[in-house]
Amino acid sequence: MKNLFRIAEAAFVLLVTGCVIYLIGFKHQQSLPAKTSVVANVVKNPVAPIINQFKDAVGENHTQVAANANKISPADLRDTNLIRKSILDTIMKRVNIKNAKDILEITQLNEKLLIENAKLKKDTNTKGQAILYFRDKWLDASVNLKDSTFNLSYDADITTTKFNRWKFSPLPSRISAYDFYGDDPRMTIIGAKHLLIEQPDPFFGVKVQARTSYDIHSGNLIPSAGVELKLGPFDLGGRYYYSIAHGQWQPIVSGTLNLLNIK
User: Fold this and answer.
1) Residues contacting residue 66 through CB under 8 Å, at least 6 positions apart
2) 263 in a domain, yes or no?
3) One domain for residues 108 and 168
4) What whole-number distance in Å separates Cα of residue 178 and Cα of residue 161?
């Protein structure tokens, strides 16, 4: 019983210490001034750099842009003046979003359709009026020669693919990008705007774990079960494991500070 009390006491001290350190760091981060000029430029004009353009085997035009070039954090949006008259402001009004932090990402495409030397055909409409028309798989256009009215219908697909690719010059690095193309070979994506709102890891989390460890020295498997509590960068856990040496289940507590998290 005395040992269990000491274990509980140690776990409580770890928990309080971790929370105090984290809250001090969090409060300091909140007191830092926002990177107004840098963030304002990104929010006002989030042009995505074009990293590649090519025509594929079936003649469709591909445009690839960097996916993570315009990345901001929710903390950057504390200054509401940054949102006004920006793409964020426009999207929030049209999509009926109250809080900019609820937006995950925005992509706006600038498309160009180029049709040259198209042959017009003569026909009559259902009213017997003379028309000139052009029709293909994607486009249906006609001009009424009697009253000079114009009808146009265009139907094409745009495919968006997000992918990762490794680059090895000069050092290995992973590039995240978007590929856009339309199924009409006459269509080209000539530019894109993209804004990504970072989604921080949740502050609190709980894991119920079952674990098996292998003791290289004795060659035994050591089963255990426990609970792990996540508080910001801290992982605090308690578990029971079967001690081969003592022939019984033993309690253990642990505390982890995550210094680096590579994803």
Assistant:
1) 48, 49, 51, 175, 176, 177, 194
2) no
3) yes
4) 6
Residue 171: inside a domain:
yes
User: Does one domain contain both 110 and 37?
Assistant: yes
Question: Is this prediction's pTM over 0.85?
Answer: no
Residue entry with tokens 């040259």:
116
Residues 60 and 178 in one domain: yes
Tell me if 233 is assigned to some domain.
yes
Q: What is the pLDDT of residues 40-52, one digit of tens each?
A: 888 888 999 999 9
- Kindly state whether residues 111 and 142 are assigned to the same domain: no
Tell me how far apart the alpha carbons of residues 193 and 180 are, in angstroms, rounded to a whole number: 12
| Separation of alpha carbons 257 and 234, rounded Å | 5
Environment class of 59 (CB within 10 Å of its CB; exposed 0-12, middle 13-18, buried 19+): exposed
The strand pair at 187-197 and 71-72 is best described as parallel
Burial of 242 (0-12, 13-18, 19+ CB in 10 A): middle
Interval 77-109: pLDDT, tens: 877 788 888 889 999 999 999 988 889 999 999
Q: Which domain holds residue 192?
A: 33-115+155-197
The answer to whether residues 147 and 160 belong to one domain is no
- Are residues 143 and 96 part of one domain? no
CA 120/CA 118 separation, integer angstroms = 6
Residue 262 lies in a domain: no
Contact 225, 239 (CB under 8 A): yes
Task: Say if residue 124 is exposed, middle or buried (CB neighbours under 10 Å; 0-12, 13-18, 19+).
Answer: exposed
Q: Backbone phi, then psi, for 25, in 5-degree steps?
A: -65, -40
Instruction: Give SS3 for 77.
Output: helix
Distance CA 172, CA 246 (A): 49
